[in-house]
UniProtKB/TrEMBL annotation:
Protein name: RNA polymerase sigma-70 factor (ECF subfamily)
GO biological processes: DNA-templated transcription initiation
Residue stretches making up the RNA polymerase sigma-70 region domain: 54-121
Similarity section: Belongs to the sigma-70 factor family. ECF subfamily.
NCBIfam families per UniProt: sigma70-ECF
Top-level taxonomic group: Bacteria
Entry-linked InterPro entries: RNA_pol_sigma-70-like (IPR039425), RNA_pol_sigma-70_dom (IPR014284), RNA_pol_sigma70_r2 (IPR007627), RNA_pol_sigma70_r4_t2 (IPR013249), RNA_pol_sigma_r2 (IPR013325), RNA_pol_sigma_r3/r4-like (IPR013324), WH-like_DNA-bd_sf (IPR036388)
């Protein structure tokens, strides 16, 4: 086992990651995956500070994906806590054969799908007729925009689990078909097909609402 770095060493490396300059003055602008890899190795060696940096870098991403997949803030917060605990107790499960973010996305999506299967909620989204009576054209447009966003969010939440996870990763997180295929361990053609079906369902939902 490699020696546990002291706090100053971790802080020095963290500054290098942020600025691209190391202690010897050479440029150390590594890729984000390489930076994560260093933090993972130090966290495995027992560095709580390295683990804290790793979590700080990715906790917003974890929550954002969970919220988009589940459509419920409370569930997303629970999933985020579950994922953080899993990272702390099961970081050894990361084999390092892929980027840390690939493994992390897989953990988050699996947790979300497990949560969705165990807790099925039906939420009523207010339609435009329930949004009140605007008194000005500007207020009317704002109410209309809010109602449209609510319907879109409800439509995404109503997608089948397999389509919703692909839609969130591809369409909302901006990952490529190949990246999503690796994360979900699916053929790329399956990812494309699920995304196409998700888009069709969402387009139909928005057309029916309009």
């Amino acid at each position: 086992m490699c020696p546990v770095p002291n706090g100053e060493e971790t802080r020095r490396h963290r500054r290098a990651l942020d600025t691209g300059v190391g202690g010897d003055g050479a440029a150390l602008r590594a890729t984000r995956d390489a930076e994560d890899g260093w933090l993972v190795r130090q966290a495995r060696a027992g560095s709580a500070e390295a683990f804290e940096v790793l979590i700080t870098r990715h906790q917003d991403r974890i929550f954002r994906i969970a919220l988009r997949v589940l459509g419920n803030r409370h569930d997303a917060e629970d999933v985020m806590q579950d994922v953080l605990i899993q990272l702390w107790t099961g970081l050894a499960g990361f084999a390092g054969t892929s980027a840390f973010t690939t493994w992390l996305h897989r953990v988050v999506v699996n947790r979300c799908l497990s949560r969705a299967r165990s807790v099925r909620r039906t939420e009523t989204v207010p339609g435009p007729s329930e949004a009140g009576h605007p008194t000005t054209p500007a207020a009317g447009r704002q109410v209309q925009d809010q109602a449209e966003l609510a319907v879109a969010a409800h439509a995404v939440a109503g997608l089948p689990d397999d389509q919703r996870s692909v839609f969130v990763l591809c369409q909302l997180e901006g990952l490529s078909y190949r990246e999503v295929a690796v994360i979900l361990r699916l053929p790329e053609t399956t990812v494309r097909g699920r995304l196409a079906r998700a888009r069709e369902r969402l387009a139909q939902a928005m057309e029916e609402w309009a």
